[in-house]
Amino acid sequence: MPSWVWEFFKKVPDGQSECRICKKTISNKSSTGALINHLMRVHGKNRPSPNDQSTSSDATDSTTENMDIDDHSRQSPKKMENYFEKISEKITNMIYQDQLPISFVNGKGFQDLMNFLVPKYKIPCRSTITKRLHLTYSQQKLKLKADLDKALQVTLSTDGWTSRSQDHYIAVNAHYITEKWEPRTINLSTQVITERETSDNILHRLKETSEEWGIDKKVTAIVTDNARNIVLAVQNSNVAENTGLTCSAHTLQLAIKEGLSIQSIKEVCDKSQKIVSHFHHSHLANNELKRRQEMLGLPELKLIQNCVTRWNSTYFMLESMVKNRNAVTTVLGDRQVTQLRIAKKLELSEEDWGLIQQLVPLLRPLHLATEVFCNTKNPVSVVRPVIISLIEKHLNGSDNDVVEEEEDDDDEYALHSCLTEFRNRVSNELIKRFKIFTDDISITDPRQVASALDPRYKDLQMERPEDRQLIRSRVQELLEMNTEVTSNTSIHGNSSDQAQESALDILFKKPRNSYTDPKNQYASFLSEPEVDHNTDLYEWWHHREKKFPAVARLAKKYLTIPATSAAAERVFSSAGNTVTAKRNCLLPENVNMLVFLFQNKNL
Description:
- The chain is an alpha/beta fold.
- The chain contains 25 helices and 8 strands.
- It has helices spanning 33-43, 53-64, 77-97, 108-117, 126-150, 199-212, 228-235, 248-260, 263-281, 283-295, 313-323, 325-332, 340-345, 350-374, 383-394, 410-433, 446-452, 465-489, 496-500, 503-507, 518-527, 537-544, 549-558, 566-578, 588-599, and strands at residues 9-12, 16-19, 25-27, 154-162, 168-177, 183-192, 219-224, 242-246.
- The strands form 2 sheets. The protein has a 5-stranded mixed sheet, sandwiched between helices.
- A hairpin with a 5-residue loop joins strand 5 (168-177) and strand 6.
- Helix 8 packs antiparallel against helix 14 (350-374), helix 14 (350-374) packs antiparallel against helix 15 and helix 18 (465-489) packs across helix 23 (549-558).
């Protein structure tokens, strides 16, 4: 039987042995005494007693996963088989985690590496890896389906995408809150649509996916972007309890776009785009910009290019222009770097720079609102408070911004008129698109209900006084409806309310409705102080679920709704990396499998 020291040492050339723990090399030409002394003195390892055999066995098993090349000859066939299986498992995981082509295993470089590291290991072919990926997909799907089965309610988010090979896909994500009040998002599917992308065909896919995952009876809402076909599909469906919820971040961007379409603003944005493009394409100008930044004591900041598909990229571009103004104007004014002909085309007037500098602080809160909406910790309950705050506190202007028409400075008046028009346009778009302060607003808007159940916004201070009572009345209606459903499903005595009635409650004949009545619970919930907007609302509810069980159940239903469909859009970022130029011939089912495994790899 090999000495126990070989669990901690491996043999290296010239009669030496290397410690697996500290990598120190020790001579052991005659015996293992020096190795034992090292283990006892340096690492506190002693010879195991007979009672420690199981521990020794565990240590041996753990080293099986990390065997060295020289160890192979000393391992039993069974251990080698387990070790090789671990390697195959790691290769399979690497394929989807690093978004590699399945054919990666056929690459000469990879095969040379594996033959060098583990000469006796038989590298699996593409077909074998594909089978392994499908097995991993099935196992992960079963695991996540079991998790979804425990969810009280689920919200879906969806988006569309076209691949390099012009295949049209629709992604569907599920959002829910776990028993421990942890918000969770999983990718359900990324399915190809072979037929036309009509609302009926999209609706069919949504129904198919929800039925496949067994959640078709508990979908609270479906959040989509503003594409007409997807919006119509959801509005005409009976898949979700609530319809008409579009991505708040995308809707906000449409309002911002309306403000940026003002002619003078559009012109200055176009000029800025040309300047940024010049520095991106001219190696000489870009190097000189860096040199000027250093000379002026400015941080080395790149000019950011505007991109129509990137939210807030106009803000980032204009902000980078303001921060680099001195360096940019110096480079454009240097005739050894920038030709006069080019400089004239890129020239910005003082009025242009003034408009840019005024636009940046106006765009910043709109950018921050987008970030808040896209934060997975912020459900739909945050949307109306933020939008109303934007309208009232950031787009309302101030007395200092008003310039009387009689003033002599026409340029200054034009600037302020432009900024006022921007505020008004964006504000009006937000009011229209989010139905803020309008008489036709539906009191069943899930955004309002969610806000009323969020401990950060439950006082509804942002809503009009006449709307607050309507929203609270709607919450009470939903509580009663929810309680009836709960009672019907718990008729055999398994309801949480029945479980809460103790022996002492019965003996003292404590009225059950004194606290378990949903109206009383909601009143107690409202009497709690409203918490800071930076508070983790899920943690807050986790600690108070037992205190307000009926309200918590309703909150868990509405706080599953995300503010945006950004999670579905992020799927296509990974899908784009999956369907690359090297593997644009992937079968649609393999695209679905690989995207699913990548998106859910941390769950």
